[in-house]
């Protein structure tokens, strides 16, 4: 049976919530171990996106309110 899990890819400080947040990916691992097959990425999310979705301000692409700003792409 395939395994599906959320894993943290990056951690960044986000000024919108004044703390560190994680960029997470939903990964699907194959049922059997195959050396040449990486896990499939099914989705991405921010660990604190729910807080931003409840805010009345435009925040970032992961909250779905500002597609022009992605805090995880900054150096
Ligand atoms: S959704 Fe965007 S603005 Fe909100 S905490 Fe996550 S990275 Fe920061």
Give structural notes.
Helices cover 8% and strands 40% of the residues. The protein has one helix at 49-54; strands spanning 3-14, 19-29, 40-46. It has a 3-stranded antiparallel beta sheet with strand order 1-2-3, with no helix packed on it. Strand 1 and strand 2 form a beta hairpin. The protein is elongated. The structure holds iron/sulfur cluster. Iron/sulfur cluster (SF4) binds at residues 14, 16-17, 21, 46, 48-49, 52, 59-60, 62-63, 71. Iron/sulfur cluster (SF4) is lined by residues 14, 16-17, 21, 46, 48-49, 52, 59-60, 62-63, 71.
Question: Would you kindly provide a brief summary of this structure?
Answer:
By secondary structure, the chain is mostly beta strands.
How would you describe this structure in keywords?
75 residues, mainly beta, three-stranded antiparallel sheet, binds iron/sulfur cluster
Describe the secondary structure blueprint for this structure.
Blueprint: E1 3-14, E2 19-29, E3 40-46, H1 49-54
Antiparallel strand pairs: 1-2, 2-3
This protein binds iron/sulfur cluster.
Major sheet details: 3 strands, antiparallel
Distance between the termini: 38 Å
Q: Radius of gyration over alpha carbons? A: 15 Å
Molecules bound to protein:
iron/sulfur cluster
Percent of residues in helical segments? under 10%
Number of DSSP helices? 1
Tally of strands: 3
Order of helices and strands: EEEH
The average pLDDT is 91
Query: How many separate domains make up the residues?
Result: 1
Silhouette: elongated
* Class from secondary-structure proportions: mainly beta
Strand content: 35-45%
**Poorly predicted tracts of residues:** none
Q: Largest sheet, order of strands side by side? A: 1-2-3
